[in-house]
Amino acid sequence: MSNKLTLAGTIWIAADLHLGPDNPDTVQDFLQFLHSAQHQAHVLILGGDIFNAWIGDDQIAHPAPWLAQVSEALRSFAQQHPLYLMRGNRDFLLGKAYAQHVHATLLPDQVVLDTSAGLILMSHGDEYCLDDLAYQRFRYWVRKPWLQKLYLACPLSLRQRIADSARAGSQRGKQYKSKEIMDVQPAAIVAACEAHSVHAMVHGHTHRPAVHDIPGFEPVRRWVLPDWESDFSKEERRGGYISIEGTQLCLHQWGKKDQCQTLGPQQV
Q1: 199 annotated among ligand-binding-site residues
Q2: How high is the pLDDT of residue 218?
Q3: Which domain does 99 fall in, by range?
Q4: How far is CA 220 from CA 61, 116, 182, 197, 200, in A?
Q5: Could you tell me the CATH number of the domain that includes residue 215?
Q6: How far apart are CA 235 and CA 63, in angstroms?
Q7: Was 196 annotated as part of a binding site?
Q8: Model confidence at 253: pLDDT above 80
Q9: Cα–chain-centroid distance for residue 239?
């Protein structure tokens, strides 16, 4: 695996923040999270869907107030610690220009983290949802460089309307899909773990935070990151992150008991 990233110290990983102008409370929760990370973590990885929609890096020329605030907080963190960004299905157009703007490193779609807890395969996770054929067709086309170039040549206002329409269509389509179809395909998970000989897998995207056994591939486990929501949920706010400290992985969710496991090369 050529995409290997060696990291030291305490690592925090979060994903599916869905930051945007319509969820100010979630933005504020994230800003507080960054403040805590500055003092408690040595490395921060944001594993995709950082933004509810990303219509191009040229937004940074005249950012909306919420985006300017988030970007400044990311820069503040990156001045003290390494910051890594990963693309998701909602912000697949996130580019090197924005990463440079906040002094972060843009990661590939899949990366093996070489940590004190062993090798951990990290991705956004949507590439493993192979049973959702409609989404996989969408993913295939929107990642075509020529199509992205055409889209980015449009005015920002038109790009925003296109993004809003696509997101509304996606929400309608989910009503007719089973939870199983929208989840990761077990065979794809096993194949990825076998290919990279890892001690654990971490991903987001599915909004189903948990620690899963991988049948037939124990003791490797699949750690799913929580999505963040503090504005519209009728329940308590959602959110959280995964920490890697020493040989221990922990899944932290707001208002819930931490789930932790000790890893290490000796377990494989």
Answers
A1: no
A2: 76
A3: 4-125+198-267
A4: 44, 16, 22, 10, 5
A5: 3.60.21.10
A6: 31
A7: no
A8: yes
A9: 12
